[in-house]
Amino acid sequence: MSAIIQSPRSPQTRSRKGGVNWEKWGWLYMRASGVLLLILIFGHLFVNLVLGEGIKGIDFAFVAGKYASPFWQVWDVVMLWLAMIHGSNGMRTIVNDYANNRTVRRILLAAIFVACVVLIVLGTLVVFTFDPCSTLIPADQALSFCPVP
């Protein structure tokens, strides 16, 4: 019995007519989000570590000051969304490559999807609802611009 291996440049036949090629779009997303993540992450590190006082300058007040600006809120949320979807898509690819049992594959893919959605929702809520003057913070630890109750 011999197997015929098609030339790499030969046209591919599709098993189904029409539809969206999700693997192609996932591959393109990984490349585009990877480039954007490099820009966002190195910009984040540059602003936080190089322009400021370094790691010793990052504290609650620093984060509160950053999240007072809509620019940094959007920057961090875009970084969060791209990183979570990028990582989840990578995990999906690994599960599809190595999980042979259909039931196990579906359970793992569902777990990845749920974890991604939960972390994106929680992270987005934290960024946009962050209140540095929360009543949960003791008065002696409140920031200088927060009204004392």
TrEMBL record:
Protein origin, superkingdom: Bacteria
Broad class of where this protein is predominantly found: membrane
UniProt keyword terms in alphabetical order: Cell inner membrane, Cell membrane, Electron transport, Heme, Iron, Membrane, Metal-binding, Transmembrane, Transmembrane helix, Transport, Tricarboxylic acid cycle
Cofactor: heme
Topological category with respect to the lipid bilayer: Multi-pass membrane protein
Location of this chain's protein in the cell: Cell inner membrane
PANTHER family: SUCCINATE DEHYDROGENASE HYDROPHOBIC MEMBRANE ANCHOR SUBUNIT
Protein name: Succinate dehydrogenase hydrophobic membrane anchor subunit
Protein source organism: Subtercola frigoramans
Highest classification ranks of the organism: Bacteria, Bacillati, Actinomycetota, Actinomycetes, Micrococcales
